[in-house]
Amino acid sequence: MRSLQTAQEQVLDTVSALPATAHPLADCLGLVAAEDVRAGHHIPPFDNSAMDGYAVRAADIVNTPVELQVLEDVPAGSVPTQSVVTGSAIKIMTGAPMPAGADAVVRVEDTQADGDVVTIRVGVPAGASVRRAGGDIRAGSTVVTAGTRLGPNHLGVLASVGTAHPLVYRRPTVAVLSTGDEIVPYETEQLTPGQIRGTNGLVLVSLLQQLGATVLDLGIVGDDADELRAALARAATEADAIVTSGGVSMGEYDLVKAVLTDLGGVEFWQVAMQPGKPFAFGIIDGTPLFGLPGNPVSVFVAFEQFVRPALLHMMGSPNLFRPRVLGVLEEEVDTNPEKTVFIRVSLSWQGSIPHARPSGGQDSNVLSALASADALAVIPVGSDRVAAGSEVELEMFRYPEDHGLTGE
Ligand code: AMP
Ligand code: MG
């Protein structure tokens, strides 16, 4: 049996980053920048007003109230045609370019307009309510560094500097297929004895979508070696990685195992983790294959520990593992000293400290306890019991959407 860490290292050593391509920015969410991106110009590109008001010379409004002659009106998107000279002002809207001669903006609330004349009631110093060119981003500075996984705000910054096709690592296509004679499509209305609705396929497709992969859903593959070989051949040709569920357990007579063994390149591992001990990994026709166990909780845990980091690696990310946070275990749990044990826990927050409680049955088939969990509590090899009140490491896969604060 190999340790979880050894198994993870072996997987990560086998897969490599996909090629980088210039890709349309609108389709870059979740992809990883393959190079630093520098701004070609200042942001903001020009000095502009931070307020709706009047562009003035600060020296003119030291003593208030004072009347100034309004020369023109500059809405955002227009440019001033005149300069502010002593005794004058230009009406300006937020985001409009500062007129020459003006060095401050007085907000409209602090003024009183009457025809071409405005009374400034409150003095402001030079620079007030002016956003300087380059005040946000200097021309030539790095706005996104290589290795950044692009989120909505990175896309916004890239848009602001006009990077419409950033160089990013290609989005992986991942084929998903479920196996098992007892598994029928979840849409099946009437189950016959012995059948269950397949859940792994949909869970895997969703996890992959969340990661930013393109999914090739190959559905459920039945009890037929030719059908399975054909599905795997298609997957290896069309996808960058293959994820299967079921049929990799130790000692079991199983079609998947037989076909994978025949194809070569795939090894069957026993990983010292719970759940998710049996795991098949290898390369089929140049394409990495992750053979996950069939039990739904094992599928999730093995996805989190192997598939997610490997795909992030293929996507060019330097950050492969979820950060762990420390929390307090509220209930004693028995664990297995031989294995890294993942306890499905739900969290309650006392201030910023998560308090963890097993979210239900811990057997590897109990998907409902996973649905009500927020995190995996990671119990390292070597402990057989963790006392209530102990500090535990938590791999968070769901964050609270509401902190329960009512506001004061
Ligand atoms: P296996 O690893 O093929 O021995 O499957 C282990 C357990 O997981 C069995 O109880 C299967 O019925 C169950 N299982 C396998 N595939 C799926 C699936 N796609 N959805 C839900 N349960 C599954
Ligand atoms: Mg099976």
What report would you give on this structure?
By secondary structure, the protein is α/β, with parallel strands linked by helices. Helix content is 19%, strand content 31%. It is built from 7 helices and 28 strands. It has a 6-stranded mixed beta sheet with strand order 7-4-6-5-9-8, with no helix packed on it. Strands 16-13-17-21-20-18 form a 6-stranded mixed beta sheet, sandwiched between helices. Helix 1 crosses helix 6 (296-314) and helix 3 (200-211) packs parallel to helix 6. The model has no long low-confidence stretch (mean pLDDT 95). Residues 180, 246-247, 294 line the site of magnesium ion. The site of adenosine monophosphate has 19 residues, from helix 3.
